[in-house]
Amino acid sequence: MTTPTSLTNEMIDGWADDKVGPVALCLKQPLVPVEGEGGVIFPPTYADIGYNIDTLSDGTKVATIDSVGSQANRMEPIFKAAPEGQSENPLATLVPQITIDIGENQVVSILDVGHRLGDAIVRASTLKDRAKSAFELYLTAGDASAVAKLAPTSLVFGVWDSRDTSAKLPRIVQSVVRAWNVDVLTRSAQYSPPVDYAALDVFSEEDKARGEKDSKSPLAKRGFVHVPSGSTLGGIVARGPIVRDVTINLIALRRLDSKKNGEQLRRYVLGLSLVAGTEPMDSFFRQGCLLTPESSEAGSWEVVHRNGMRTPLLLTAERAREYAANAAKHFGVGQSETVQFDKALAKADVVDSGDSGKKKPKSVKAKG
After folding, report:
1. How far, in Å, CA of 5 to CA of 131, rounded?
2. What is the distance between the alpha carbons of residues 274 and 111, in angstroms, rounded to a whole number?
3. For helices 262-278 and 317-331, what crossing angle results, to 10°?
4. Residues 135, 142: contact at Cβ < 8 Å?
5. How many CA atoms lie within 13 A of 245 on its CB side?
6. Lowest CB count within 10 Å: 224, 246, 253, 342, which one?
7. pLDDT for 274-321, tens place per residue?
8. Cβ–Cβ < 8 Å for 246, 27
9. Residue of 315, 321, 268 lying closest to 27 (CA atoms)
10. How far apart are CA 120 and CA 135, in angstroms?
11. What is the pLDDT of residue 357?
């Protein structure tokens, strides 16, 4: 087995700067249910289809356990400042902490909003104009530095300002969890009330009989009669591996530019991407789906070269943090602040069709 390569700062810098350098960093991390191999786990359910399970041409069934978008939403808050009274989060110093004050002692961190800098709550706040200017600078000049100063994780996990400038920046870090060769289970349940309400003369025996035949009846919905539930989704068993695949797209990274400090920008975003990819994840995805790495050594990073060659890497969370802190120092982390929610802006955004008749800025073809 090839010995993993130890990483120097010069090597990592090359990932950000070398236009003909490697194309990606990849991690395959085997996971297992906490119950052990063969344990039942529950994938997410989607409208109309239930579980997202694809059948390959050879009959293999592959289930999505956690989607790319869901994984990004779980990873992004690792950069958020700890709540008051808790131990400080050292990763919070790597990005600006921007919160939106919506009143009545409620604030929302931009690290928690689904569409990042392109989210409706940003457009409905006093951050709106600066966010729009940052997107327009990227569209017209290919300069992502203003986005990085406001919301650098929008560069790490991708952002699409689809409802305003149409600026679209691809994900640099992509992660997804899939289970292979799965069998789908069903489950049944029976609710039994603690007492016989008909015997207590709350309603008649006839009402009770009708209620038990119709799970949507008021008596059933309010828990006054027996309610059976049969053949609902009961999770899956993975006969094959459960794998978390993480990719850091170095080509997308190298397309980030800035008029003044493109090199520092790319290294800064790379540092954040390395941290996002290497930090241990809380793998309680949903009720009935608690996974852990197969072992403490499970999963290894590889650098993927342009010719397809793969080289093992000794990439650890500690090394990623070290590089990211140094890169953030040289680029200069944007200012942390609290901005105000503006109900008038929100109302205006709701009625705005998004087509003011003005031409949107012409995008610049990315370099590299």
Report:
1. 40
2. 17
3. 150
4. no
5. 11
6. 342
7. 999 999 988 899 999 999 998 766 578 999 999 999 999 999 999 999
8. yes
9. 315
10. 14
11. 44
